[in-house]
Design a protein that fits this description.
about 90 residues, mainly alpha, 3 helices
Length: about 90
């Protein structure tokens, strides 16, 4: 029986699979609307922080689903699109 030597890091395919699973877990953690004073909230917060740290450690960068903004993903708008939108509201 031949033994294979374990690799020292994940392959790109494994990283992509991990990120897909991490995004699913992220959504299941942040979707429930529960009181910040309850034990479940605190436990989910600890789990979420561990998930974020693991994703950063494995990928070496922030991932799109980790962008924090109270209203959803932060998207930059160009000045042109802002001006176009402001003219819509004018009579």
């Amino acid at each position: 029986m031949a033994r294979t030597k374990p690799s020292k890091q994940l392959s790109q395919t494994e990283i992509e699979r991990f990120l897909a699973a991490a995004e699913t877990l992220h959504k299941s953690i942040v979707v429930p609307l529960i009181s910040p004073s309850c034990d479940h909230y605190r436990s989910l917060r600890v789990l979420h922080e561990a998930l974020l740290n693991t994703v950063r450690e494995i990928t070496g960068k922030e991932v799109a689903f980790i962008q924090w903004n109270g209203t959803g993903p932060a998207l930059r708008q160009s000045r042109d699109s802002l001006q176009d939108n402001s003219s819509i509201n004018q009579p």
